[in-house]
Design brief:
Strand 4 (67-70), helix 3 and strand 5 form a beta-alpha-beta unit. The chain is α/β, with parallel strands linked by helices and 328 residues long. Strands 3-2-1-4-5-6-10 form a seven-stranded parallel beta sheet, with helices on both faces. A three-stranded mixed beta sheet has the order 7-9-11. Strands 8-12 form a two-stranded parallel ribbon. The protein has helices at residues 11-22, 55-62, 83-102, 139-157, 180-189, 206-219, 235-246, 257-274, 282-287, 297-303, 311-323; strands spanning 2-6, 26-31, 46-49, 67-70, 107-111, 162-167, 169-171, 195-197, 200-205, 225-228, 231-234, 253-255. The protein starts with a strand and ends in a 5-residue tail after the last helix. Helix 1 (11-22) packs across helix 6, helix 2 crosses helix 3 (83-102) and helix 3 (83-102) runs parallel beside helix 4 (139-157). The protein has a domain at 2-174 and 204-229: NAD(P)-binding Rossmann-like Domain (Rossmann fold, 3-Layer(aba) Sandwich), CATH 3.40.50. Helix content is 42%, strand content 16%.
Length: 328
């Protein structure tokens, strides 16, 4: 069964490709012109050059494939022109799913995010059924992914054999950009993060999350959503574990929320003039107001999805960043 993967040059997509190859799948990847293909080096994959906004290139890429894993997304907490993110995440999702429908694809797995799900933010884990609306979305990334998920839901209702997965916060090797979470790890271990906000994340191994994608393709109910998460941890706990792993000082100061929020607003204003990414992204601070805890019970029960504690993927991430020159 030939499988097309979008976002394969990125962090989670690269892990999905590796899991597919381990399962003996024939893999084709959609790659934009000029994309950094470092995460594909040495892998036995077919490369289709194309773009989510180029419908003809998508039709060519999908030709001959039976399955699609759509993991590509523009994941940034700030950009000068948010329209670019909505084009990639919303319009691009519609384009690739339409191409899959036109080709009669046997199965599609769409990678969303827990950021599109409801979450009370008080430590009670959210899940696939927690009430939520577009008004609850903080920042353009979450808004664009929420709208893209609605596109995927609509395609499933119209007959596309599609399953939605909602990863939490993957960490581990191959985070080449790095992602905002990877940058947090690098900054803390490098001593550039002496203080922190009181927030919380659900940490999952990127490799185990990728395996959850394959389980969703094999066992997921059409139109259903599955949280692919791991361990709920306060940020102070994450930093304490990183300090132990990397043999660096433990976190020292917890910052009050309001002054950081004010600084983020000022940083964002400055960035609008300079075009340079703010040191304190406003969306990141606003997201930190809630504990982003989630339950993977549905995936555990229906897919047989299991994960290990967060210490191991954090350890793998630090080792990979060190080996690859992110930590001098």
């Amino acid at each position: 069964m030939k499988t097309l993967v979008t976002g394969a040059t990125g962090f989670l997509g690269a892990h999905i490709v590796r899991e597919l190859l381990r399962d003996g799948a024939e893999v084709k990847v959609l790659v934009r012109t000029g994309a950094n293909q470092r995460n594909l080096a040495g892998l036995d994959v077919d490369i289709a050059v194309g773009d989510l906004l180029d419908k003809e290139s998508l039709a060519r890429a999908i030709a001959g494939c039976d399955r699609l894993f759509h993991a590509a997304a523009d994941y940034r907490l700030w950009l000068r022109n948010p329209a670019e993110m909505y084009a990639a995440n919303v319009e691009g999702t519609g384009n690739i799913l339409q191409a899959a429908a036109d080709a009669g694809m046997a199965k599609v797995v769409y990678t969303s995010t827990v950021g599109t799900l409801g979450n009370r933010g008080d430590g009670t884990p959210g899940d696939e059924e927690t009430p939520v609306s577009l008004a609850d979305m903080v920042g353009d990334y979450k808004k664009s992914k929420y709208l893209a998920e609605q596109v995927a839901v609509d395609f499933a209702r119209r007959g596309l054999p599609l399953v939605i997965v909602n990863p939490s916060t993957p960490v581990g090797p191959l985070d080449i950009k790095p992602t905002p979470t990877g940058k947090l790890i690098v900054d803390f271990v490098a001593g550039r993060m002496p203080a922190y906000l009181d927030t919380g994340l659900n940490i999952v191994s990127a490799a185990e999350c990728a395996r959850g994608h394959l389980l969703a393709a094999q066992k997921g109910r059409i139109g259903a959503k599955y949280v692919l998460g791991g361990e709920d941890l306060h940020l102070s706990q994450i930093l304490t574990r990183l300090a132990e792993i990397a043999s660096v000082p433990a976190p020292r100061w917890r910052l009050p929320y309001r002054p950081v929020l004010l600084a983020a607003h000022l940083n964002e204003l400055l960035a609008s003039f300079t075009g340079r990414e703010p040191l304190i992204p406003l969306a990141g601070v606003q997201m930190a107001k809630k504990l982003m805890f989630f339950s993977s019970k549905r995936a555990n029960m229906e897919l047989g999805y299991v994960t290990s504690p967060a210490y191991h993927p954090l350890e793998q991430a630090v080792a990979w960043f060190r080996e690859n020159g992110y930590l001098k």
